[in-house]
Amino acid sequence: MSSVIETDVLVIGAGPTGLMAANELKKRGVDFICLEKREAPSDLSKALGIQARTMEMFELLGVHKEFLEKGYPGPGAKLHLGGENASVVELHHIESRYPYLLILPQSETEKILESHLASLGGTVDREHDVMDVHQDETGVYVKASCNGEVKEYKADYLIAADGAHSKVRDALNIDFEGKDEGYTFFLGDVDVPGLEEIFIHMHLNDRGAVAFFPYKDGSYRVVGFDRARQGLPHKDELTLEELQDSVNTVLKYSYRLENPTWLSYFGTAHRQVPDYRKNRVFFVGDAAHIHNPFGGQGMNLGLQDASNLGWKLASVLKGYAADSFLDSYQDERFPIGKDVLKETSRMLKVVNLEGTQGKVRNWAGKAALTQDWVQQRIANHLSNIYNEYEKVKRNKKLKDSTLPRKALQAGRRVPDHLLFFDGAKDERLYPFICDYGFVCLIYIDAQHQDAIDYAYTFAEKVNDQYQGLMKIFLVAKGGTVHTDGDDLPIIYDVHRHMERKLGMEKGSVLLIRPDGHVAFHDTSMDEERTLEKLHQLFQ
Description:
Blueprint: E1 5-12, H1 16-27, E2 32-35, E3 49-50, H2 52-61, H3 64-70, E4 72-74, E5 76-81, E6 87-90, E7 101-103, H4 106-119, E8 129-136, E9 139-146, E10 149-160, H5 167-171, E11 177-191, E12 200-205, E13 208-214, E14 220-226, H6 240-250, E15 258-272, E16 277-278, E17 281-283, E18 289-290, H7 298-317, H8 327-351, H9 355-368, H10 372-382, H11 393-396, E19 418-421, E20 425-428, H12 429-436, E21 438-443, H13 449-465, E22 470-476, E23 490-492, H14 497-500, E24 509-512, E25 518-522, H15 527-537
Pfam family, one: FAD_binding_3
Cofactor: FAD
């Protein structure tokens, strides 16, 4: 056996979630090693829907343009509930720069993320099969087999991104609580001559369900379930003839399916580990939670797990935060995962209604979808932009009770906004977060020197205690601001987005986390009190 290989973080698994975690760590200068069992990236399409909030995470990582170039921006869905006339759900309601479902095969997602990792100087160590994992007060240890050689690794922390059959989870005897749902779905990537649809096309009736997802190249993902094939012995292999037969069964007017590139049956389950953190080990993606595919949530949930965890590990490893700060990963992400499991299980039960109950579902669904507010709520909810953390106990403690109701408080997602930067050009907020990680905005007034003085005093003290942590910007309503120093760049809030949409006012300090959520919003204009909130954040 070779000598022990040491690093700060071990990432086990190089699917989308593991690659997202590796990119986050590399971007923030954390030393890591990513181990993957597979010899090469998967060529299977698997998960294909990228939600708006995930696209925002990709932008904060700096990789969104590659996804936009290769993906298909699905504008919505046409739902055929028990009949021929479709109810249309449009996604332009999503309050994001990405008001659509980006449809892209998972294989392409993996390629983009691994290519981006390589551009940053990171790599994936493939053909490493994990044999054993254990941990103690000094670190976490992994043994892995690679081409007949046993390698041993040691790290301060480990990210388990090794999927639904996680070896890390098994090695540590972590429960995967839940149950199988007992349904068999069909799936095929095929050509569908005669179907020229820019919307997702979904059919639901007493015979089953089938959905067509358009790819950018003109082919379709066909997925659904056939009631006539439920309860049969499980098998993974699906033939084109079986897929065609099931689609013919469900649809009143069917389509011819041709040129399959992937065909499969799959079952569903809902399971979740009780704690996403086990001492030095963190579970992300399918290693932490699995559920059925309704709503297109699974891969997005994992990618957002990784985004939440990566900057927190970097904050601890760089000495800004205490180890206990990492408990916030469980506090923030476990409830989101739990809600998704409940919702997808509920969706499956509703979809599976038949007879009179199915007719009531169809009637109620059609009636509800005629309401614009219902469509808006559905679109924004499924897009994940409402996945916020303001109800988490540790974030509640950071709230400022003097702020108006419209003001964003700790844990809230910060939407992207247009700014007038440095008195010279329009700029958006998200590129600043991408470039600097922690972004601190301090609202000033050119006619009140006290706010400017406060900003410079706070900046000096932050730099003394947390050197290199954040980039501080002054935010002014307009006009020309003159300061004694030139080290704090000025943003002019000429569009009033910071004031009207974020609730900032003179003396406001809004600290934005690297994942685009509010760390805290403080209006005390007392630098010691504001610093105390920063200390509290990292405990």
